[in-house]
Amino acid sequence: MANDSERIFESGDEAFASMFRVAREAKGLTQDDVARHMSMRNYDFHQQTVYKIENGRRRVTVGEGVELASLVGLPVEALADRFPDSPESLANNVKEAGRTFGEELFDMADSMRALRAIRDEYVHAVRRYAEHPTAWAANSDGARVPQSVIFESLALFDGIQAYATSWQELLNNSDARRTLAAVGWDPAEAHETAI
């Protein structure tokens, strides 16, 4: 028989009751902890209230559901989903999406290096052009475009480069790599695949 995080539920109420218990236990909270938390937020909750909710003997109001979901750090929809994905399925989705993201990120970083070299050549050419006494740049209406505008637009490229660089730095950080590995994605594997 599938565990509660993998089974199909008859109703959203049944799903909420069962999945809340799973999430509460995963957070290390007792039914008493939940009752205290809810009581502090002016809900009439006791340990028995939580027990009844988790065993399908008491429904929750919308407000209670939102507060309980917040307590375990999940959206209400995740707790009330009648067709939850298995943890393995979710981990595989993360790994596959991460692999694709990593491959594209490394490809983008390589492209950014090539673009930077081309951009530098362009900037050099624009500067030489702007230094010529009779040269001027014009937009499609024939109006003169100040040199500062040209260089400001080129500076936007630096923001894209910084984005790619920050992701590369993150992926080279051992703590970040361990965190990503915990959800089943190895950035080194993605980089090797991208090469």
Automatic annotation (TrEMBL):
<dbReference type="InterPro" id="IPR001387">
    <property type="entry name" value="Cro/C1-type_HTH"/>
</dbReference>
<dbReference type="InterPro" id="IPR010982">
    <property type="entry name" value="Lambda_DNA-bd_dom_sf"/>
</dbReference>
<protein>
    <recommendedName>
        <fullName>HTH cro/C1-type domain-containing protein</fullName>
    </recommendedName>
</protein>
<dbReference type="GO" id="GO:0003677">
    <property type="term" value="F:DNA binding"/>
</dbReference>
<feature type="domain" description="HTH cro/C1-type">
    <location>
        <begin position="20"/>
        <end position="79"/>
    </location>
</feature>
<dbReference type="Pfam" id="PF13560">
    <property type="entry name" value="HTH_31"/>
</dbReference>
